[in-house]
Amino acid sequence: MGVFFLRYMLMLFVLASLTCLAYLIWISDNTTLRIIGIPTASLLIPIWLFLLYREITAPKPYIPAISKITHFAIIGPEGNYEKEWCISGAMSLLIGKDTASGEADIDLSDTQYGRFISNEHAVVNFSQGQWYIEDLGAANGTGIRKKSEDYATRLKPNVSYKIDPGDTIYISKAKIAVI
Q1: Cβ neighbours of residue 168 under 8 Å, at least 6 residues apart?
Q2: Mean pLDDT score of the chain, rounded to an integer?
Q3: CA Rg, the chain, in Å?
Q4: Are β-strands 71-75 and 120-127 bridged in parallel, bridged antiparallel, or unpaired?
Q5: How far apart are CA 169 and CA 106, in angstroms?
Q6: What angle do CA 120, 123, 128 make, to 5 degrees?
Q7: Alpha-carbon distance 100 to 154, whole Å?
Q8: Pick from 142, 149, 150: nearest CA to 171
Q9: 140-161 residues labelled b (16+ CB within 10 A) or e (exposed)
Q10: What pLDDT score was predicted for residue 3?
Q11: What class is the 71-178 domain?
Q12: 166 with 178: CB under 8 angstroms?
């Protein structure tokens, strides 16, 4: 049995005991039961309050946030997806080009606009159930077109911008669909 189940059963037992004692103390006419019930209730009430306090202040189990975004995909000249990256389970991804000294998580070196993309162009980070993109000061810049907008916004370097499914990320001239 789980710890939470046992904790709830103990709290339920104490509550049931207090209910029975309330009957014995206030409703019953038996003096002996009242003499026994009052001290017993005096012990059980603080126990009940302590258990209730522990339940309220107990740390809740960590449940990782699930992202609505699962993939990034390069959008080709005809609007088709040329290459996709599954990002499920990732927390941070570097967008750029692979080099001898480093590896980009989303390597755009083999795309048609590869020569315009910096080695460390942008980074996407997952925080509190949401993805954010940040331009790393790339020469040709980074942009984002929100799903609901007709235009792209150029990102300021080192500033985080929220991204959602349906948005389009511009890494220089390369277009990446947020799926």
Answers
A1: 75, 144, 145, 152, 175, 176, 177, 178
A2: 88
A3: 30
A4: unpaired
A5: 13
A6: 165
A7: 29
A8: 142
A9: ebbbbbbeeeeebeebeeeebb
A10: 65
A11: mainly beta
A12: yes
CA distances from 15 to 18, 48, 49, 52, 157 (A): 5, 7, 10, 11, 59
Q: Residue 175: helix, strand or coil by DSSP?
A: strand
Closest CA to 22 of 7, 44, 50: 44
25, 34 in Cβ contact below 8 A?
yes
pLDDT at position 87:
94
Predicted confidence band at 4 (pLDDT cuts at 50, 70, 90)?
A: low
Whether the full predicted model's pTM is greater than 0.70, yes or no, is no
Top-confidence residue, 2 or 69? 69
Task: Give the whole-number percent of the chain exceeding pLDDT 90.
Answer: 54
- Looking at the predicted structure, is the pLDDT value of residue 95 above 70? yes
**SS3 (DSSP) at 135:** strand
* Angle subtended at Cα 88 by Cα 86 and Cα 89, rounded to the nearest 5 degrees: 135
Backbone region of residue 141 per phi and psi (left: phi > 0; alpha: psi in -120 to 50; beta: other values): left
CA 167 to CA 149: how far, in whole Å? Answer: 9
Q: Which of 46-50, 65-69, 76-80, 112-116 has the lowest mean pLDDT?
A: 46-50
**What single DSSP character describes residue 25?**
I
